Amino acid sequence: MQSVIAKLRGYTQDGLVNTRGEFGQLLSLTPLSVKLDEDPTPLEPDEIVILRSAELRQEDVGKKVALLSCTNDQYLLLGVVE
């Protein structure tokens, strides 16, 4: 998963500054809610954008997910960590 985050970071480096990978727990799909490993306060739905290919399902709730922290105070949810 770290290599995927590194590759995506390389692709987006021109448009993003201080981007870093983070991990969290998917709490809910509707509304979308994720609790980051390093922050006990869940992210609000408007703070998260899902990568189109992530294909999250209801059975993924409770699993660990990978996100990119962006400079516009939003997070790009990459998908479930396998």
Describe the structure in your own words.
It is built from one helix and five strands; from the N terminus they run αβββββ. The protein is globular. The longest helix is centred in the first third of the chain and has 11 residues, at 2-12. The chain has one helix at residues 2-12, and strands at residues 20-29, 32-36, 48-50, 64-69, 75-80. The chain has a single domain, classed as Nucleic acid-binding proteins (OB fold (Dihydrolipoamide Acetyltransferase, E2P)). The chain is mainly beta and 82 residues long. The N and C termini lie close together (8 Å). The mean pLDDT is 85. The chain has a five-stranded mixed sheet.
What does the secondary structure layout of this molecule look like, with pairings?
Elements: H1 2-12, E1 20-29, E2 32-36, E3 48-50, E4 64-69, E5 75-80
CATH topology: OB fold (Dihydrolipoamide Acetyltransferase, E2P)
Helical residues, percent: 10-25%
Molecular shape: globular
Order of helix and strand elements from N to C terminus: HEEEEE
Class from secondary-structure proportions? mainly beta
- List the strand order in the largest sheet: 2-1-4-5-3
Query: Any idea how many domains?
Result: 1
Annotation field: number of helices: 1
**Main sheet attributes: strand count, strand direction, barrel closure:** 5 strands, mixed
What's the end-to-end separation, in Å? 8 Å
